[in-house]
């Protein structure tokens, strides 16, 4: 029994012996879990603390990169625009070739008008120079003549307005000499003929100047029509390309403005030349008027002398018969 009793405690001891080992597992596991939690929390706080400044510094860096990219985009776009403009021929001939057919027609019409303007200027200037020189020469000869017959013999300057007046006076005197006519009637008829010839000469010299007035008043509006048409085409090109790039807009607007420029080139000289000829033709008409007066003076002088001579002859005859 003693042995049995002795064995029981031993067995109980042996059985109870593993109990501490089972108790050690929870005891050891609890501190490890707290330590791990503390260590993990510290690591997470450290990581969060390290990430927060990095996140704050990332904002300015991102904005700077965006500005750099935006500036680079503008630089590339500007370079493309300059390259496109460099490839576009913006000379007058290049703009004419690239223009619409309506704008081309307007430009050609205005250039023709400009050529006509300068042709009229050259021809009319030469005509006026010759006519005024001949009229001055004939006027000086008529003024120095004593009678109309002397003027006919001495004054020969070829064709011209003065010679037409001289011929009209001679024709009327010859017509009046065919029958009885009073001195006053002859003077009036000669004056009427000279006025008509003078008006015809002035009108003939004014031929062509009306075309200058038309070009000067119409050419700017024709050029404006070409400009409006060209700008319409430029806007249509913008709508089709869906861009407001200067390389797309500039050529069309330049072509349109070229039409206006050509219109002004045609109109401004036409107006200036028209005003010049208006003054020059006015001076020529004044010379014709002086020529008419000089011829009337000769006619009146001849008629007065004839009247005096007739009166003297009549008096002599009366004395002889008396």
UniProtKB/TrEMBL annotation:
GO terms for cellular component: plasma membrane. InterPro entries: ExbB/TolQ_transport, MotA_ExbB_proton_chnl, TonB_ExbB_1. Residues 1-29, 45-73 are annotated as: Disordered. Residues 182-281 form the MotA/TolQ/ExbB proton channel domain. It is a multi-pass membrane protein. Residues 8-29 have a biased composition (Low complexity). It comes from the Bacteria. Keywords: Cell inner membrane, Cell membrane, Membrane, Protein transport, Transmembrane, Transmembrane helix, Transport. One of its GO terms (molecular function) is transmembrane transporter activity. GO terms for biological process: protein import. Residues 53-66 have a biased composition (Polar residues). The chain crosses the membrane at residues 101-123, 211-236, 256-277. It is found in: Cell inner membrane; Membrane. Involved in the TonB-dependent energy-dependent transport of various receptor-bound substrates. Protects ExbD from proteolytic degradation and functionally stabilizes TonB. The accessory proteins ExbB and ExbD seem to form a complex with TonB. Belongs to the exbB/tolQ family. This is Biopolymer transport protein ExbB.
